[in-house]
Specification:
The protein has about 425 residues and is an alpha/beta fold. Helix content is about 40%, strand content about 20%. The structure holds zinc ion.
């Protein structure tokens, strides 16, 4: 008699679950895609259903023989995840089910807290509101993903420093939330969380190699290589905002000088426009900011540039040229399939994208596909929160479900 190897069995079940994650399928379809026999797929589906991981999705007519065939789906409650995104201005939270459907979302201003402990407590209240909103389904939450602006140590679960968030230095996010909520916590840099959202729901869906460039108050990058987010040995891979562009340039928040961020970020664009306005350079922007140059935003600069305002066009072109050079550097370095631009400055900003693209094309290797695809994110500003929640779901579709299935089969052996 052939005895099934439990480890191999679970590997096969996880593979079937991953196929179902892409959408409902019949047994025959699962068998065709996996190479497992129909009867083996049937056995696996029984186990997965008994473990609450898949559901019979009703009947559908099978393609060739016209026989009705059961369609299987991932059980939405197989795992729920909450994703928190803490940015310089706003924080956002989402709860999603195992199929990636949004169950809850909410936003609030990022707290200005006197100490790290106060900041953690306020974030904690915000997170709990999402947990409570799920009612009894809260029991299915398998983890909290946290996307944090600035520099993050994903391994230790710390915010190291965030220039735009008060009291964010050495903030023990993972420890605090694990102790107060009692679910697994994944902490990630916000640009990398955005890359995860792009890979599953956005312009990079299904792609194995791509880059997202997040342009907001700062500039960050998520680099995905062979389907995996690349963090690097020190955990800070993808800090495109801090590649040196201009010798003896302005001092950057990282302590260095002339970084890309000092030239092309939202803060840099606003600062450049403000400086010119203070020199009384003629511009529509004087009216747009009600003659208060310190309140100029990238959006105002973009709107003025759209109607041909000379100062706004110059400021945006200068920032876009530098960003284009840096983008070409990233493309020549990693040879991605596409580059997705996202973040507050880029989102829906086709004007800025055109400037960046024009500049980048001058420096991209001619041997690479032309025109090289550079696109804007189509996801909304919950992108990083969604990516953080997706990190938890991704973990479940890998090790999490495997551990649950292993524990179940161990219990069966004991009984
Ligand atoms: Zn820097």
């Amino acid at each position: 008699m052939r005895v099934a190897d439990p480890e191999n069995t679970i590997t096969q079940q996880i593979e079937l679950l991953r196929l179902l994650r892409e959408g409902p399928r019949t047994r025959r379809n699962l068998s065709d895609s996996s190479g497992y026999s129909i009867s083996l797929v049937r056995q696996h589906m029984q186990v997965l259903e008994a473990n609450g991981l898949v559901v019979d999705d009703g009947k559908m007519t099978s393609d060739t023989r016209g026989r009705p065939s059961t369609r299987w789906s991932v059980d939405p409650d197989a795992c729920l995840a909450v994703g928190l995104d803490v940015g310089g201005i706003s924080m956002r939270i989402v709860a999603v089910d195992a199929r990636g459907e949004t169950l809850y979302r909410s936003t609030a201003p990022t707290p200005i807290a006197p100490t790290g402990d106060d900041l953690l407590r306020t974030l904690g209240v915000f997170v709990l509101s999402a947990f409570n909103a799920l009612g009894t389904r809260r029991a299915f939450i398998r983890g909290l993903g946290i996307s944090f602006s600035g520099f993050v140590d994903a391994q230790l679960g710390l915010s190291l420093d965030a220039a735009n968030i008060v009291a964010a230095q050495q903030l023990p996010l993972q420890t605090y939330f694990h102790e107060t909520i009692g679910v697994p916590i994944i902490v990630e840099d916000s640009s990398r969380a955005m890359a995860i959202a792009q890979m599953r729901y956005g312009a990079a869906r299904g792609l194995q190699n791509f880059i997202t460039i997040n342009v907001g108050a700062g500039i960050g990058t998520g680099v995905v290589i062979n389907g995996y987010l690349y963090r690097g040995d020190g955990g800070l891979a993808g800090e495109l905002g801090h590649i040196p562009m201009l010798p003896d340039g302005a001092v950057c928040r990282c302590g260095s000088q002339g970084c890309l961020e000092t030239l092309s970020s939202g803060s840099a664009i606003a600062a450049r426009a403000q400086f010119q306005l203070e020199q009384s350079t003629p511009s529509l922007l004087h009216n747009l900011c009600h003659r208060r140059p310190e309140t100029v935003t990238t959006l105002m600069v973009t709107n003025a540039a759209r109607v041909g305002d000379k100062l706004a066009v110059e400021v945006l072109t200068e920032a876009g040229d530098w960003l284009g050079m840096a983008t070409a550097t990233a493309i020549n370095l990693y040879s991605p399939r596409i580059v997705v631009f996202t973040g507050g400055v880029m989102r829906s900003n086709d004007l800025f994208l055109n400037i960046v693209e024009d500049a980048a094309r001058r420096y991209i290797l001619r041997q690479l596909p032309q025109p090289f695809p550079m696109v804007l994110s189509t996801l909304d500003d919950y992108e990083a929160a969604l990516g953080a929640a997706t990190l938890v779901i991704d973990h479940e579709f890998g090790q999490g479900f495997a551990q649950r299935l292993a524990a179940q089969s161990y219990e069966l052996q004991l009984s």
